[in-house]
Amino acid sequence: MGTIADRVATPGAGRIRSRLAAREARLGYLLLLPTVAVLVVFLAWPFLFGLWLSLTSAELQDPGRFIGLANYKFEFTVDRPFLQAFTNTFLYTGVTTVFKLGLGMVMALLLNQVFPLQRFVRAALLLPWIIPTVLSTLAWKWMFDPTFSVVNWLGVHLHLITYPGPNWFGNTGSALVALMIVNVWRGMPFYGISFLAGLQTIPTDLYEAARVDGASRWQQFIYITVPKLRPVLLVVLLLSTILTFADFQVPFILTNGAPFNSTHVLATWAYQWGVPGGAIGLGAAVSVVLFPLLAVLVAGTLLLLRRPE
Questions:
Q1: By three-state DSSP, how is residue 62 classified?
Q2: What domain range is 29 assigned to?
Q3: 32: which residues sit within 8 A by CB, 6+ positions away?
Q4: Where is average pLDDT lowest: 20-34, 73-87, 167-181, 237-251?
Q5: Are residues 112 and 35 in the same domain?
Q6: Residue by residue, what is the 3-state secondary structure of 94-120?
């Protein structure tokens, strides 16, 4: 009897579950509507409007006319500072990402150990990330100042450089190095604290088993730490690379393209065309150039995240 009753009741129960699932799905879509509205208003619409502006000759107080890809052609064939900014953006992002990744990993491994004042040290190392970017960059600008440079003074007294030290903003090479130093200093805590959170999710049993098997510290790091940190590593790299590609505040405040527009990145060069220069269409075109590059980066990272370990 019980078996027959179960057979009879099963279709009805299945229909009830399916109706409940449908209601939950509709409720889920309903709850997503505010988020979708925010994304459309503050992300999708500005992006599409910027894309349209990049195809026009728009200027301040002049909506301009549709000119197709003329702005992009001008950038890649005539606008030499754009090509310099394009190169600087890749150099700035690539070099700083490598250093932030390495130093952030070292920071996370050190903070994962037990030592006195552990919580205080963790909080102190987060200060570069917490301090407003404008204030910290202005402080660094003073530290790199050719007349009052604390960096040069320290370098001379430690016999690392000769008196009076380099004029950091006097040539392209040293100005880019100064930009990279500030970006690494500011971004390293983000890597460190993210990796630290990932390290604390790795079971200690794995390390104990590896030590029993005679694995060295380096082997434990390569075969346990890195594979287990892979999802965190990829996400942090993705977010940091996007933020560095689009970084505006540090390059604008520290050098603003000096000397002679040679240290601009795409974000600051777009601003120069669009705001002081008044060529809104050209400025929008410079900004849009970043989109396909970042889209490829995001797609590649998502593919790596889906791959099994």
A1: strand
A2: 1-41
A3: none
A4: 20-34
A5: no
A6: HHHHHHHHHHHHHHHHHHCCCCCCHHH
